[in-house]
Amino acid sequence: MFYKSFYLRSSIIGLTIRRNYFNSTFSYNKIHTTSIKYNSPSKGTNNHDQNKNISLTPKQKKLIDSMIRIDQAGEIGANYIYKGQMAILGNDKKVGPIIQEMWEQEKYHLKTFDEIIPRYRVRPTFLRPVWEAAGFILGAGTAMMGKEAAMACTEAVETVIGEHYNDQLRELLHIENDDVSELRKVIKQFRDDELHHLDTAVDLDAQKAPFHGILTSIIHNGCKAAIWITSRI
Amino acid sequence: MANFLNISRSMFKRKTSCIYQGRVIQPIIWRNVLSKQQNIQNFTSAAENLESVNSVNSVNEQNQQIHTPPPTPPNPPNPIPAEILKASLPFVNQYGWSIDALSQGAKTLGYPNISHGLFPKGGAELIDYFLEDCRRKMSHEIFDKMNGLKVHQKIRFACVTRLNLTKPYIRKWPEALAIMAQPNNVSMAVEHLAKLVDDMWYLAGDKSADMNWYSKRAILAAIYTSTELYMTQDTSPDFTGTYQFLNRRLQDSATFGSLINEINTFANFAAKSTIGILSSKGIGRF
């Protein structure tokens, strides 16, 4: 099993997938939860690791599992929101190219998480089609209300995502593990990207959207509900 | 008199309420003598009690500064249940998945027959251990032998390895299946199956991150359970019938996968043609 290395498009951080991770056998000993009752002491130590990795406890593993799942679901949602917006506003000269560019970045984010999921042995979200449909409807719906509404939708979604990435970073700081540090780098970079999108949306008159307050609060609550559901399913 | 009644009533109330909450309070007389002492015990688990246990001091020490030693770390996992279960497996063919097998296993290790009390669910715990053990053994046997095989060959190899681990107990396996089907044990069994197919696909190099993740595992779970069920009544020499059954099921799933793909392609095509026709008639803005 070999891995191709990939580098983030941004020039700030370069991220390489180490080969050791896969070659250190299947890390199921390190990451999968094993039944504690039958864990005799002699089998406890994991001698396979090349990296100085402190094994994750089952609780930490579950936490990271749900974090990555939520992140992937979020990127799916964002992708389809931009897709919906492009379907309606694609021909607009002012916002069309900008939405297209933001969409390209989101596609890149989604691709990254699609690669992170098998690497960390995370279960992806079961409701992927639901998030795809919901994202498209939200994007297309707000775009039909006008450019400002579309930007307000982007602003609201990116705010929630930015906050959420921050919360995740705060929790991940407690875990000392090489793979988790890499994950932290990725999340940090993506958080910066999302906040950049937020600023772009605000610059494009998001605040002037009709029913801005209601729209924002609906989208905030919807996103938070989606995050809660995805952390479990 | 009224005073006495009042006191006794309040004592009664306090004692019953505290028994209800699982606490015990010393009688009032001693409470007055040892008034500064904490004599309320919580019947909680030892781990939670790490600090409060040390806080019961005698009256003399009350004058000195109270300090508690740092909490001791929890004990390492107890190896004895695993040893007993491991020792019980050879007796399964004779006694079935039952507490008799557990007693015999405990006896070989020198523990009393009654040690099966460590396992309140009896045979189900033995099955639990067996499934976990087989999954680990399968993974250990396979992980370095998968190079150069195609995906379906890897899956077949994993399934065959895992089936071979059930072979020694195949005569009593129907009993195990029946025990696993009991409502108490269904969740345990399903969890083991889920972990098993997840391990198999992981070792086969599955990198899917969407609904394929679920469909692959569901299909493999169905294939594996049906093959194992077939194996319980297979009388062919050396279980060749089972392997042929497995091959047929794997072929079916391959065609099933491409069939789904074909249906998807067709549905896409139909949807796009419909949208095209509608927009040529002026309906829709696509």
UniProtKB/TrEMBL annotation, chain A:
Superkingdom of origin organism: Eukaryota
Pathway: Cofactor biosynthesis; ubiquinone biosynthesis
Record's keyword annotation contains Metal-binding: yes
Annotated keywords: Iron, Membrane, Metal-binding, Mitochondrion, Mitochondrion inner membrane, Monooxygenase, Oxidoreductase, Ubiquinone biosynthesis
Catalytic activity: a 5-methoxy-2-methyl-3-(all-trans-polyprenyl)benzene-1,4-diol + AH2 + O2 = a 3-demethylubiquinol + A + H2O
Binding site for Fe cation 1: 75, 106, 109, 194
GO function terms (MF aspect): 3-demethoxyubiquinol 3-hydroxylase activity; metal ion binding; oxidoreductase activity, acting on paired donors, with incorporation or reduction of molecular oxygen, NAD(P)H as one donor, and incorporation of one atom of oxygen
One Pfam family named in its UniProt record: COQ7
EC number: 1.14.99.60
Residue numbers binding Fe cation 2: 106, 158, 194, 197
Membrane association type: Peripheral membrane protein
GO CC terms in record: extrinsic component of mitochondrial inner membrane
Subunit and partners: Component of a multi-subunit COQ enzyme complex, composed of at least COQ3, COQ4, COQ5, COQ6, COQ7 and COQ9.
Family: Belongs to the COQ7 family.
Protein name: 5-demethoxyubiquinone hydroxylase, mitochondrial
Gene: COQ7
Automatic annotation (TrEMBL), chain B:
GO biological process: ubiquinone biosynthetic process
GO cellular component: mitochondrial inner membrane
GO molecular function terms noted in the UniProt entry: lipid binding
Keywords for this protein: Lipid-binding, Mitochondrion, Transit peptide, Ubiquinone biosynthesis
Cell location: Mitochondrion
Keyword Plastid set for record: no
Composition bias type Pro residues, residue spans: 68-80
Pathway note: Cofactor biosynthesis; ubiquinone biosynthesis
Protein name per Swiss-Prot or TrEMBL: Ubiquinone biosynthesis protein
Pfam families to which the protein is assigned, alphabetical: COQ9 (PF08511), COQ9_N (PF21392)
Region annotation (Disordered) ranges: 58-80
Protein family membership: Belongs to the COQ9 family.
All copies of domain Ubiquinone biosynthesis protein COQ9 HTH, residue ranges: 83-107
Residues annotated as domain COQ9 C-terminal: 187-257
Function: Membrane-associated protein that warps the membrane surface to access and bind aromatic isoprenes with high specificity, including ubiquinone (CoQ) isoprene intermediates and presents them directly to Coq7, therefore facilitating the Coq7-mediated hydroxylase step. Participates in the biosynthesis of coenzyme Q, also named ubiquinone, an essential lipid-soluble electron transporter for aerobic cellular respiration.
Keyword Methyltransferase: no
